[in-house]
Amino acid sequence: MRKCYIPFLFFFLISLTVLSALEYTPGQLIFKTSQPLNIKSDQTGITSFDHWLSTLGAHNLRPIKGMPNNQYFLANLEQEPKWQDLKEGKVKFAGIEYIQPNYLSTFHTIPNDPLFPRQYHTIISNPQAWDYCTGSSTVVVGIVDSGCLINHPDLAANIWVNTREIPDNGIDDDNNGYIDDIYGWDFVDAPELADIAIGDYLNPDNNVEDENFHGTAVAGIIGAVGNNGVGICGVNWNIKLMIVRSGFLTVDGQGYLQDDDAAAALIYAADNGCNVINMSWGDPNY
Asked: Whole-angstrom Cα distance, residue 172 to residue 277?
């Protein structure tokens, strides 16, 4: 019996090593063009750039959803370019503003100490501020994160609802490009990371539920309902939290956000009325 565990343990340790080393999505790049253009047959029409892409086995060139002006694109690659040469500006193309990896961001750590919210409320003098204001339901905060448990008893009353959309009728009632986006949108689409991703990491849709629970914790710190005798108290007792899911769970229990998904999420949040956007994540090397 003991021998049966050895291959599994080896695979698990290798998986953790790969996870800790990932800085960007393997086999993908993002580029921005100087002028709007339409991709045809995986060609941009910029001859020198198209030739360079062909040497990398580039395919499935497509616009990044939600980004403006048809200038931001994602490509799959058979071979990685020399990223350091690109970073140092040794490889340039007329008509291309920049080329970068599809970077992966990690979630910032949230302590699980039961007194954590109380400690930080004191540090930033929230009790004194609450004598003047406890927030406003007219303010919408975009939670660009791993999603949120929208029915959580300490959050449900403060979750933003898209009143211009009729739930579950399969129609984009508000003509914003997203069907039945009642509480926000799920932008996660990471099939190329299937070896390390688990849960809901495919097929963007209107399901913003949280599998990582990082986004739920962040939403609670920002806007858990206050003075209701339940759980914790957010910095804002009254607020509206728009849930824009852009991060997914990984086999090590942590998670990642891809640059293209996060960028589309930010555009969505801005276009749909957020006054503030929260991003509790970033490059692990900064």
From this structure: 24
